[in-house]
Amino acid sequence: MDVGLGDFEYLSDYKIWENKFYNGRLTSFKEIPLGFFSVTNSLAIVQCRDTFDKDGNMAGGCSELPEGELTIQLPYFPNGKYADIFDLSGKKVLTIDLSSKATCNENDRCDRPVEDSENCPQDCKKNEPKIDPVVVQLSANNQVAAQEAEKKISLADLGWRGVAILIVLLAGGGVGYYVYRRNRIYQE
C-alpha cells in the first residue's frame, strides 16, 4: 500500500453518492466514521493488451480478470484503522486494513516516537513536543551502529581452532613475504 500526498475530496456522509457510485467509509480505531469517499462505478479488474495477428494487423482488447491489483484513492487520517468499500446497493464488498499506515492508534497512551501532540492529539494530551523525523532517523542509525559494533569478533569468539588457523595463516604469510624479499635481494 502506498501513501501519497495530494488533494482528495471526501464528505462527512455519503448521501450524495448513494446509489450512484461505489463508496467508501474510513473508520477510526475507536470505530468512529472519519469520512466517506467515492470510488468508481466499478471495482472490476481489467487487463488490456495489443497484439499482432499472423498478417501483421493489430489485434487485442480488454478482458476482466477474476483477481489482480486495484488502485483506490482515499483520504488519509492519522487515526484511520480501516476503509470499507460498498457497492451500489450498500453491500460491503471490500475492507482495507490501514492500521500499518496510521500514526495515531487512539489507545490513550502517547506512543513515542511515532505519536506526538501534532499527529495524535487524542493520545498525546500533555502537549509532548513534536519529534523531528531527522532525530528519529539519527537515533535509529546510532542503534544500528551500536549493534554492528557489538558484532566485532574477538579471538575468544574464534575458539581454539579459529586461533590455530589464524596463526597458521599469519605464519604462512610471514614465510611467504620472507621468501619474496630474499629472492628479490638475490636478483638485484
Helix and strand layout, with pairings?
Elements: E1 23-28, E2 33-38, E3 45-52, E4 58-65, E5 80-86, E6 92-97, H1 133-150, H2 155-187
Antiparallel strand pairs: 1-2, 1-5, 3-4, 5-6
Summarize this structure as a short list of keywords or feature phrases.
single chain, 188 residues, alpha+beta, flat
Describe the structure.
The protein has 188 residues and is of the alpha+beta class. Among the domains are: 23-102, no CATH class; 153-188. The protein has two helices and six strands, in the order ββββββαα. The protein has helices at residues 133-150, 155-187, and strands at 23-28, 33-38, 45-52, 58-65, 80-86, 92-97. The strands form two sheets. It has a four-stranded antiparallel β-sheet, with no helix packed on it. β3 and β4 form a beta hairpin. It is flat, with a radius of gyration of 31 Å. The model has no long low-confidence stretch (mean pLDDT 76).
Number of DSSP E strands: 6
Shape: flat
Mean pLDDT: 76
Strand order, biggest sheet?
2-1-5-6
- Cα-atom radius of gyration: 31 Å
Structural class: alpha+beta
Helical segment count = 2
End-to-end span in angstroms? 70 Å
Question: How much of the residues is beta strand, in percent?
Answer: 15-25%
Order of helices and strands: EEEEEEHH
Largest sheet: 4 strands, antiparallel
Uncertain runs with pLDDT below 50, 5 residues or more?
A: none
Helix content: 25-40%
